[in-house]
Amino acid sequence: MKRAFEKPGTALLLRCITYAMKRHRGKLLLLALLATGQAVSAQETYPVNGIADPREGCFAFTHTTIVKDPQTTLNNATLVIRDGKIVSAGVSAAIPKDAVIVDCKGKYIYPSFVDIFSNYGLSEPKRGGSAWNAPPQFLSNTKGAYGWNQAIRSEVNAVDLFSADDEKATPLREAGFGAVLTQQPDGIARGTAALVTLATAKENKVIIREKAAAAYSFDKGTSTQNYPNSLMGCIALLRQTFLDAQWYKSQPAREGVNLSLEAWNASQQLPQLFEVTDKWDALRADKIGDEFGVQYIIKAGGNEYQRISEMAATKATFALPLNFPGAIDMEDPADARYVSLAEMKHWEMAPTEPAAFEKANIPFCLTAADLKDVKQFLANVRKAISYGLSEQKALEALTKTPATLIKAYDKVGSLEPGKLANFLITSGPVFNEKTILYQNWVQGNRYTIKADGWNDIRGIYTVNLIPGGSYSVEVRGTAVAPLLSVLQKDTLPGRIDVNGKLVSLSLTLAKNSKSNVRLSGIIGDNSWNGTGADTSGNLVKWNAVFVKAAPEKADSVKKETPLAIGPLYYPLNGYGWEKLPSQQDLLIKNATVWTSEKEGKLENTDVLIRNGKIAQVGKNLAAGNARVIDGTGKHLSAGIIDEHSHIAISKGVNESSQSVTSEVRIADVLNPDDVNIYRQLSGGVTASHLLHGSANAIGGQSQLIKLRWGQNAEALKVTNWDPFIKFALGENVKQSNWGDRNTVRFPQTRMGVEQIYTDAFTRALDYEKQGAGKRRDLELDALVEILHQKRFITCHSYVQSEINMLMHVADSFHFKVNTFTHILEGYKVADKMKAHGAGAGTFADWWAYKMEVQDAIPYNAAIMQGAGVLTAINSDDAEMARRLNQEAAKSIKYGGMTEEEAIKLVTINPAKLLHVDNHMGSIKVGKDADVVLWSDNPLSIYAKAEKTIVDGIVEFDRDNDLQLRKRIATERNRLTQLLLAEKKKGTPTRKASLTPEEIYHCEDLQGGHQQAIGY
After folding, report:
1. pLDDT for 881-923, tens place per residue?
2. Within 10 A of 770 (CB to CB), how many other CB atoms are there?
């Protein structure tokens, strides 16, 4: 009796084997065992509705050029495949007797491409799900024993969601791909990705590896949960999840079952793939990996060429997308003015990215991800090749490298015995522009891409008319679009049409003849035959015999001249450096020196700078080998330090989703490309304290930077300083102006703010008391540092009652509030601030811009300073920071400060507040050479910063700035002409549009104050 789901025909086969064994036990025993084994191994659970057809497909592709891998090419070779796998590939490969022979003379066979970044076969994640006015969601709404955050989806397995889709597979096959790594692009932790082929078969047949990689990003995807709502929150969540997963290995009883963390731990042994959209995000992802011992494969954003040395330092392998930006329509000058020079240069330089990676010896693969139309993929590969990428490296990046990265080189990526029969048949070298992709074989199944031209009929033929004469003709053109000429005394035009094996000819036999010979027939292996009509209309028979190949002709097509690529700037905008400046020894002679020290203001004084430090201050100093700068009639001050700034921050200044977010770090999201660094250098600023916003009671950790224009994020950071953190009081914290939907996050009152602080530090004390094996909590780690005076508070504040409240809480837990910033009612509580030991960073004359600042007065700074409170003037504004020297001068008018006291408000005083006065903030021997040479008294509205020097490097020079403006105009015009020429050629263009920049204030939630940039 046939077993359930037994394949039809199997029972009959077994009965035949049994009968044969009875009659020929000795001779057929081995044969029977082999046959039985084959039958058993060929069985499957799916029933067949009809007659079984267990045939194996065996093919031999002969007389072809086989590119086995990027390093190995075999001429006049044979590829043999059977049952979807490669049997052999070689010059002398044996051809099985049952093989279907496919003559591939003149053709090439390549491994099909592999893409490790795809969502093929997976439905698009549905975003949203909550009404526009829905209240905040604090916990995941995913049903089941999963983790607390909806953006951590490590339990998702692409293989469980995968559904083969021939409609979507077809364009990928036509682009040359045979296998893809598919993932659900949803969430910060996206779960595992599956390696699948693009064959038209049931899912169980096309899945190569169910869990081939684990995937991550900085995009929370479809999560409707509030946290995280900033890039720094995404980074903090990833770091905390790493720690939680390590802790979960100990099976903590109080956690119970957490399927998300279980899946996270289980997937850590897989290749780790991280998607980013920007060069700086690539470095952020790599830094997370370094912290937790993971080397990510980074799916790039397309602008990594701008920082290629930093990319090389990651030691990562990259998946490079080829979605090069389209040309911009610059026809209308009114629209064109909105397009930034940075965007124009990126259009020009983006295709150089693969070549830049190859030149830097950074391993990479190529991906069709992000292309709107995958049909553009091969064209963009060729474009990358025209911009310097070698063809061998391009092939490696599409075959061996991606397969090796996901540990699947034993299955795909080359043409070796035992691997899947995934290969392309082409008319020539695969990346040549005129090469035709005829077929893409996937798992031994043929998928025709282009049938025309498979039989290349080009050559010299003799056409015999019966009755009639014989004529020599030449078939030229391309294999797909052949052309015909009749070779008489004069070469005469003809016509040829080919449709598969059918051919029709029209022959002109004499010059100026009004009638032609018309023929139709069939193309055979050795000759063509058919019937037709001669010039008189008489019926004839005909044949055409191949004589020889047509002589090769030099390519008459004018090769396209590659664009003369403009220089790369650091950063990539009009004011960037072509070469980063180096430290110099400088002697500034005969200036009025504002020391911000007890020496005060020194007339006609020299300052010598060596090795980035102030070496001497005095008169008539010897220059030695130092560059001399004449300071006669000019003023030299210490560089301005902005104690409260939000410049150079990426993708959110606030992690506003919770009331306590001390785990997030501004240091993780520095943006060195922010033009406000350059602008503020032009105003004499040399350092900025970058703060988290004021959306919550306990915000994120801050970062002090020096304005080292053109450097990367790590180089901006001041390393020898005490760490700080941002707290906040007032309307923002209790969400007074956030709208009706934001009325559920605690606290909603000023009373509740105090309880948030008390609760947070109580939890921190309890956390510290826990023994070994406790769950490490990044939020509480930062609060414990505060309790031990290892991290210091800058607190956004306005109203005296709240200022008093926070000092009381601090005293209760035995720590100090280092700085109250804004502090517009500080003049009311200056005595209490002095007794507590708090300093102040305030505005010069901002008031009446919201309810809680109604009592602000411009005398605030002078009153606090007079009461013994260490006071600084700050900006909290990218524009105001460019004139902090003038803001400091206002305290001369409002409060009667001396000039020397006023300049200290933006130099040594903020340095003291930030605990860096031992090496910054004044002109003193041994301190960092952060100085500004002014055209006039620095407290004058007429003063201009002529040179701003940071660590002995001239970061801003007003004369050089004038040259940069000319360079911007010249470069914009050059690129505009190139873009206009592209449009004239018929290249599709996109509409010119505004290029926004990120500008943040304390209260900004996501986007900040956006404005156009055109530099």
Report:
1. 999 999 999 999 999 999 999 999 999 999 999 999 999 999 9
2. 11
